[in-house]
Design goal:
Length: 371
Amino acid sequence: MNIYAIVIVVLLLLFLIEQVVKEDKIRQNLFYIGGFACLFILAFRSNDVGGDTYNYTGYFIGKARGYYSTYELNDDFEIGFRWICGLLMKISRTELWFLVSTSIITLAPFLYLINRDCKTSKILPLILYMSGWSILSVTQTAIRQNVAISFLMLAYIIYTEPNIKNKYKWIIVVASIAMCLITHNTGITALVLVLGAYFIKLNKKASYTIVVASLIISVLMKNVFVSLFDAFYNLMSTVEFAEKMTGYYDNAKYSLDTYVSFGTQGPYTLLVLLYIYMSSKEDCKSLHYKCLIWGEALYNVGAYFPMMFRVVYPLLFIGIIFVPSNLNIRKSFMPKSILFALLVFLTIAVNNIPLNQDDHLLPYNFIWQEK
């Protein structure tokens, strides 16, 4: 059993215990254990865990590796990320500090929102973080994007925090959004997607329709997507700044040969449909709920484009924080049993995925292990 599956099994056990015990203190301690396990796996990974981690750590410690060079020699990165690296360097300039600090920046808002907003289970979002939608692999690889999204989540935290005075709240919110936008160029896309999810009203009927329709479209309309991708490439090939994006077109790793079927998309879709079933009308107003619905729909529709999960990652990262309010109702025994079976299925799938850099689950070493 690989290390990812081991952590998920531990989280599944914590989830079962959480659903049995009633004492808030015990449930809170279970969350602390699960949150620490997720943070530990991310923070103490080796520099070869993640497609760009080796280059990022070289950039930070001043040893040129690949195409990122070093902090002193490469000023092409977004200014926000350079500011953060500069601040971190004042404390230490080691690989360990870089990976630990950026991991804390990535997961701290996520864990805070789970602790604040999840009432019926604080473990369930951690299980989905480890097992669902390639979210874990993005947090291991896309360090600049992770930091940018953490600022966006911080803006949401401050905006929805009732104990902060308005005159200070808006200053922090605007500053956090600004940092999101200048830390990675996907920040604007993430902001638009999250704002769209926030302002679009959903009910359970519309949610069912959106998710099911997205699955049907993804399974039945490959030829349409191929034509759209060809047209998009021809358009973007004339745009100078899109050179890296269009470079994926001729790369077999990112081609449209991805096999999409109910078997590959179905488990996540069933999981979200189950969430909708166990949700209340009030749940439909939650940003986490809306992000999950739209994230899953875009994930399905964009399944033929292997880089699409990086685009919808902000929605899904925020969305998996949602936990249905009816999870603990006695009548939910059957849905809860199906949910647990799906989680076990995802655990088995994680354990059986080949660990290599071409898949979305990366081979794992701790930073102190010899390679």
